[in-house]
Design brief:
This protein is of the alpha+beta class and 236 residues long. Helix content is 61%, strand content 7%. The protein is built from eleven helices and four strands. The chain has a four-stranded mixed β-sheet. The chain starts with a helix and ends with a helix. The mean pLDDT is 93.
Length: 236
């Protein structure tokens, strides 16, 4: 089995969760085959590999499936231990990294989605304020995790960088489609510099989707959601 066939990743280019796995594999210089899922359908391989949640990403390592993005990143860090470490060696720092990575999934991602699903101007304003509050919390977390260095992981990209940074493309889409400024000198000065450093990193820059391409995809998603809502509202 070739190196790339030994490691395969089932995913789709717009997914921030898939991007996490791709960044981790790049950090470790692991060759892999990227198996693109078609939007709106699920392949037999995906359904077989992740029968519980039936969603991407799935990492196939020697044909053994590993599911859920943060679990995949930590698996990659443990298996390819000779590359740069993604999780800290200190148990407390490692626990802290896991806490903030989970916070991104539990708070940041839902609050970002909440803006696009809010009904009416007042609801949208409230959703934007909630989202901004979460981003300010991440500014504080940067100080706790990074300890004055350039990434959440210190001198190198770590678990929280990957968890949060994978969302940057969609954060830019949120800015453009809702007139929201996510990062600024007043409320998130540390994150402003972090965004530039993270986006320019070798392991990141080639897997982060272009904002315009993501915008087109977001509009397609919105159109499908509107069509589905209209179909549901139509009397049978």
């Amino acid at each position: 089995m070739s190196k790339s066939k030994e490691v395969r990743l089932i995913g789709a280019w717009p997914s921030p969760f898939v991007i996490r796995a791709r960044i981790a594999l790049n950090i470790k210089s692991v060759e892999y085959e990227f198996l693109q899922e078609t939007f709106g359908s699920k392949s037999e391989l995906l359904l077989k590999s992740n029968p519980v949640h039936k969603k991407i990403p799935v990492l196939l390592h020697q044909d053994k499936p590993i599911c859920e993005s943060l679990i995949i990143v930590q698996y990659i860090d443990e298996v390819w231990s000779s590359g740069p470490s993604i999780l800290p060696s200190d148990p407390y720092d490692r626990a802290l990294a896991r806490f903030w990575a989970a916070y991104v999934d539990e708070k940041l991602f839902p609050s970002m989605r909440g803006i696009s699903t809010a009904q009416g101007e007042e609801a949208k304003k409230a959703a934007i304020e909630l989202f901004k509050d979460v981003v300010v919390v991440m500014e504080d977390a940067f100080g706790k995790c990074g300890k004055g260095k350039v990434f959440f992981g210190g001198e190198e990209i770590g678990l929280v960088d990957i968890a949060f940074g994978s969302m940057l493309g969609w954060l830019r889409v949120t800015e453009n489609m809702n007139g929201v400024k996510v990062f600024d000198e007043t409320t998130t000065p540390k994150l402003l510099g972090w965004v530039e450093r993270f986006s320019a990193a070798d392991a990141v820059k080639d897997v982060m989707p272009e904002t315009e391409k993501l915008m087109e995809f977001a509009k397609l998603l919105q159109a499908k959601m509107r069509d589905a809502a209209a179909a549901a509202a139509t009397p049978k």
